[in-house]
Each structure stands twice: as C-alpha cells, then as structure tokens.
Batch of 3 targets.
Target 1
Amino acid sequence: MREELKSTMYNFDGQVAIVTGAGQGIGFEICRQLASCGASVILNDCDVKLAIKAAETINGSFGVCVAVPGDASDISFIHKLVQTAIERFGQLDITIANAGITLFGDFFTYQPQALQQVMNLNLAGSFFLTQAASIEMRKQGRGGSILLMSSVTGHQAHKDLAAYGMTKAALEMLARTLVVELSPFKISINAIAPGATKTERTIEDKSYESTWSQITPMGRPADVNDIAQAALFLVSQSARHITGQSLVVDGGWSAVSPSPY
C-alpha cells in the first residue's frame, strides 16, 4: 500500500513532519499520507489512546509515525513536541497546526470560558507551534513548510460560530503576515480552509451528508482525502513558491453560501 500511494503522490523521503490534532479525521489522513510518501511523522492528539492507536495503524501499514499525546494549546507541551521531532529524527521540515475545537453557541449568551477555550487552542496553540517550529527551521538553515488549518467559517458567516470563525479568519491573516518574517529563511506558510467534511465526528449527524450534498455545488461534502491532498500539495516542493495564501476546499460552497439550517 505504501509503495502504491507513493507512486501516485508526493515524495517526502527524508523529511520530518509534525501534525497536531491527528488522532482521527483530517489530521490522521494527513499523517497517513505523509508517512506513505516517505516522511517520518510526529502525530499529536490530546486523546492518549486515540493518538497511540492512530500511530500504530500508520506504523503497521504506511510508514514511520510516532505518537506524542498532549494538549496542543499548552506552550510547554508545544516545545516538547518540537523537541521530540529533533530528538527522534534530528530535524523538522513540515509543521501542520491542525488541532482545533468547535464550540457552537449563541452570540448573545456565549460565555467567556468557551471563548477562551476556542482562542487558546485554535489561535494561540497554532501561533506558538508556528513560532517554535520556525525557530527550529531557521536554526537548521534549510527552510521548511508550515500549514495552518482555517475554515470556510473564516470567510462566510455561519450561525452560532462567531468565536470559531473569528479564530479561523485570524489564522489566515497570521499566514499572510508571517511571510515577512519567514521568507528570508526559506520557510513557507499557508492555510487551508476546509468546508463541510465527512469525518468520524460529523457523520454522527445522520443528516450531515445529505444536507451538505444538497447545498454544495459539487454535489457532496469533502472527504478527508480531499483535504489531505490539498495539505500535501502545500507542504511539498511543488508549492515551494507559494506562501501567505489560503486555499478553500469546499466544493464551491463559499461561492454561493446557502445555510445548512
């Protein structure tokens, strides 16, 4: 399976990647495909059992993957995550800040604790992971690739997601702003904004696929492979002259933006 995938995808031989929030869903698929294409992957998730199981699955069939469970919003843990990559593999080439949390809530009653939780993981966690990874990449002197996980809710209004959408829009501005800081060191930084995507979490809603199939111009929500393929492109050598950009992967939904409600 690994050789079959490698022949049709990208070549990440000799590269080392960190992916947060990767115990399942989009993050797991990104890790699986990176490992299948030759990368050594540090897989993070806050759920210890989920992280270990995910890494074992990848190690068993697809390539090299090490589980490092922990809270991707905790700055001390973020530094541990980067240091683990260096200690285990001697370098860091790719960092994907995929960890995030979605807390729906009516704007008029949204609570400070919920806002802080969303800000800490989605925004501060991504910011400081980018900082720690960039410091290491600058030290190595070979450049690198950083990818932030945004959302279509950072582009279009979505009911009960004011806080979440705010953090996702901020991540896209972070990617654009850091072009000035990172380009002199040959470090690219971009963002992906997925639309509705079938994952273990979203398919718990029995009407999710049918609802989004009706309102998505391409006739279906994304699957995790759709998002992972975009991610791999943006951290590959094929995208070495692309930086500061945000790629929307939503089957055309944001062009028309009908509400699922």
Target 2
Amino acid sequence: MDMHMIYAGVGFMLAAYAVIGNDSVQTLGTFIASNIRVFKWYWLWLAASLVLIFTLVYGWYVNEGDISYGRLDKIPPIEIQWYHAAAPAVLVVLTRFGIPVSTTFLVLSVFASTVILEQMLVKSIVGYGLAAIVAYVTWMVLAHFLNEKQNQVKAKHRPYWRVLQWGSTGFLWFTWLSHDMANIAVFLPRELPFELLIMAIVVLVGWLGRIFYKQGGKIQKIVLEKTGSRFMRSATIIDFVYALLLLYFKELNNIPMSTTWVFVGLLTGRELAIATVHRADYRLGYVFPLIGKDFLKMMIGLGVSVALVLAIHYMINPVT
C-alpha cells in the first residue's frame, strides 16, 4: 500500500465523519428534535440508515459505480496527497466548535480548480438567496394560518403528521445525499468496486449511529434555536421545502454547491417571515442577531476554504 492510498483512506474516514457530523444535521436535525422524545434513538438511526443504504446502492447501480450522482464530473480524479486529507481534518475541528461549515467548499475546493471553485461559490450564493426568498414567501402565507411558536396539532391528527414528517425527511435525506455524497466519494475510485461500496456503507452507517446517539451534536443547536423546529408539523414543512429546493438545484446542473448555504438561507427566510407576521410577540431585534450569527459562521467556513485552496494552488503545489 503506497502513501497515496493511505492518504485516500484517511481522507475518506475524516470526510465521512465530517459530512455526517456537520452537514447531515441540516436534513436530520428537525427529524431528531421532533422525534427523540417519542422514539428511541436507534429506531431513528435505523430509518435514516435504510434511506442512506438505498441512496448509495441506487446511485452506484444507475451511475455505473459512481455514488456521487455525477457531482464530480467537473473534478477529474487525481492522486490523493496529504493536503487533500488535511481538508476534512480541518472540517472535523470546526465541527467540534459547532460551526456550520460548508463541507463542499472545504473538501472539494482542494480538488477543484479555481474556475470550478468560482462556479461552486456562485451557485451556492444563488442557492442561499433563492432559499431565503422562497422560505420568506412560503412562511408569510403559512404564518397567517399556522402559529409555529406553539405546537397546536390536535392529538387525533398527530399520527398523520408523523407519517408525513417521516416521508418528507426520507425524501430530503435522499435528495441531500445525492448532493453531498460527492464530498466523500472524491476520496474513492470514480467507478467504485462492490467491496468498497459495502465498506463505505458500513462506515457511514456507523458514523450516522453516533450522530443519533448524540442527538445531533453541537451543530444541532442551530436547528433548536429556530422557532418551532422541535414541533412535528413545522419540521415536516421545513424538510419538504428544503428537499424541493435541493431537487431543483440537483436537476439544474452537476456543479457541486453548498447545501449548508441553502439550509441557512431557508431558516433565515422562515425566521424573517414569522417575525414579520407576528410582530406583536416576536421582535426583529431577536431575529437579526440570530441569522447574523449563522451567516458569520458561514463566512468563517468560506474563508478557511478559500485560504486552503489558495495555499494549495499557489504555495504547496503551484501550477507551472
């Protein structure tokens, strides 16, 4: 085994943990928050694991061994160096501090050219803006009918909302994985042998179990701070709107993007809409520091990503 394979293995393990530990809370955070008091963590883990296994096997089968769903078409395979493995290591450190860093920027930026990085950034900015606008309009309408500061679902209707929530979360989890699996697959062969597929599934399911056992970890705080995110009905609507946004960008083109930015944009637009409608008991002075803090954390992650890619392209491995 040469050093390139060792770097690839280390990078894969770190990226797998970072993606599941940092980014998956975007999709599973509301699911965990609204179900953890009803179901044991291992039942939630089992449900999420089944969707993950289906997504990987389906992508591997229909894309001839490519589990990235074509997200790496613009990033040619290269020999993994130590600095490629260092990128997810930085992400793991930032995750420990609860910073919602874009895994796409931090991991894929060290593999991509500056041109692709620019395209990734533009698509992510558009994603943030569109998500905020869609969420604002959607919750401006919903806020006139639903008070998401309170859990007002009647007891007889809760089983139906529970089914809807599990369905919307499964849809979102599948859509999100088809975006962000590229951040892990970049360390693996583009045509993945079956035995490596099984290995990837085992590793990811294992990390996923840890996240459910820890009830989302520190990143979960970003979800819990938002209005009504623990409520089953609110979680269902958030997941469904987020899934539709990701599906749109998935079909738009195969340029990777930051799903973190889309998620934060969605929560931003939602909070602003709720605050706008319920002005009497929801002050905008509370909202702006909240969304500003999330945006600042995103900028920290982007700054680290840009610094890494510039260091690699112009200092560590300059192109002559």
Target 3
Amino acid sequence: MGVHPGATNSRAKLWKASRFAEVARKLADEHDGQVVILGGKTEAELATEVQRALPADMALMLQAKTSLADLMGVLSELAIFLSNDSGPMHLAAALGVRSVAVFGPTDARETGPGRGESRVVREPVDCSPCLYRDCPIDHRCMERITSERVYDEASALVSL
C-alpha cells in the first residue's frame, strides 16, 4: 500500500501524518503488506513521521526518490493508496488505483479523484470548502476526521 501524507501547495490540506501511519500500519498488519511512503522534496518531515511510526521492515521510503514516471509505476502496483488532496491522488485515480483521499478545505466535487476505485473522506463542517491554504481557526475539517473512518473506507476497498 502507498501513503502520501503531503500536499505541496496548502498546509490546510494536511491530515495528520500520524493518522496516515496508524491506518497504514493496521492495513499492513491485517494484509501482511508493505507500506510505500511517497512524497515530494518538500515533504520530508511528513514522510519521516510516517516512517518512524511504522516497523522498519514494514516501511519503504521513496519520498523524493521517484521521477514522475517512477511514481506512476509505483502507484500502479499498489493495492491501496492513502492520500490528501494532492497531485499523486489524481495520478492514482487516473491509473485506476484503489484510493482513499482525505479532504478538508477543498471541494471534493470539484477537485476529487473522480475516476477509478476512489473514496473521499471529509467532515461536513460549516466553513468547508473554504479553499484557504492555512486555516485561520481550528482546522476542524481535518481534525475531526478519525483514523477509524479512513481505515474503514480503505479496508472496504482492499476487500473488493
């Protein structure tokens, strides 16, 4: 399975890396899988946080180590992909990869994965979609999304 905990152009789009790690670990444990951690050059801190939360033999760190072609190749081999609203999320959807995308300040109807076996997890709060790059209040759109909700969606897709 793959995890992309980043979102290059907006801190408000970031679901906690620790929650991505929690979901990935549970899925990998249940399905005897490996977790591939993906991300761009500026996302090292997030990728490292995921890596540190996983057993060393479970995580393969590919953050900042793939070209676009390599990324597409890695994505196409995944059983499931976990991501925020990001470029890799769109690539996974275009490739038909089963994906769970966590959405907060952006409108999933406008910028969601739209293709393939994808699910969007979002919290319907009165201030979303706001399209802010930094949340001026309490980031409730992302904070209220639990690991359990994302895990349930991912688990249902892995079981298809």
